[in-house]
Amino acid sequence: MTKTVLLTGASGYIAKHVVLRLLEDGFHVRGTVRNLARGEEVTKAVQPHLSDDADLANRLTYVALDLTSDDGWDDAMVGVDVVMHTASPFPLAQPKNEDDLIRPAVDGALRALRAAHKAGISRVILTSSTAAISGSALPAGDTAFDETNWTDPNDPDATAYVRSKTLAEQAAWDFVRDEAPAMQLTVINPGFVLGAPLDANYGTSISVIERLLKGKDPMLPAIGFATVDVQDVADMHVTVITQPQSHGQRIMTVDRFMTFAEIAQAIKTAYPNRKVVTRVAPNAVIKFLGLFDPAIKSIVPSLGRIDKIDNARAMATLGRGMRQAHKAAVSSAAYLIENKSL
Ligand code: NAP
To answer: From the alpha carbon of 228, which atom of ligand 1 is closest?
Structure first.
């Protein structure tokens, strides 16, 4: 029988790819959006990529839900088999008040899990982040970050976003342990997600590539990210639905760590005639600028850091190697050049 997946935050960059994969795999999708008008946008983004768009209005429907309000959650769960919770604020700049990120992330995750539990839905997949794994230094004796590592939410260097993702994931595991031990929770922890978006309403990670393509920054900070292709992140969300071995697991979904300069170089190699800055700023310059700009200050603790990442569980789950991160960077740039005339 056809299964229905309730997907929160369907208007998100990653979620639109997940919608596509779910529909291609024969699931029905009930997407949650804050504003129902965004539902039409999601359908328009996904439809051209479907191998068969017959009966789409029945296979892909929407309900309005907000992470910060109880309204509608119980009704949204009626007839649902699987809950996939991707919604969480992911802004480019950190807010003045960190609770603007932390409260919707934590309370939203708990609303999704509570409503699922109340409705008797046991299969839940939650989108966390490597921010909840590698936001603090690698413990002495460990050789690479893996799913056993946790960011310390009290780490003074953790940004509001890093804290929001760590606390939301912890709240989810605590809820399962204390209130819903039979719940089959799988947590997906993607790294920095790149790859062509399905439409021009893309999120923060693609905005970073947009900024690189605009070539306005004279130099790049010496920072980097464990990077992953958005299609692998979507594949992971859908693959685990039918994998009982993933119950109770976190899955760090990354290809490899790329420095910002490597990402820029990959794009420059693909588009040699474009002015893409690849020069790296001395750390002292970034630290100095950080004295005046809180956004720059927040990256100072990451300067020079190159994380070793163990993605064995992700590859075992997908049963294959990961798509190459540098190609995801180039396809993000290709989308922006072709569709946004950058
Ligand atoms: P995105 O495009 O900004 O999507 C975020 C989604 O969350 C949007 O659908 C947004 O709805 C929704 N949302 C935010 N605040 C909400 C609220 N108060 N109530 C209801 N919905 C709310 O970001 P994304 O990159 O696709 O990220 C999706 C998920 O992946 C997030 O959990 C993020 O933390 C995680 N993640 C992303 C990356 C990355 O590099 N992109 C890496 C690791 C993890 P609106 O459209 O209404 O704003």
So the answer is: 40
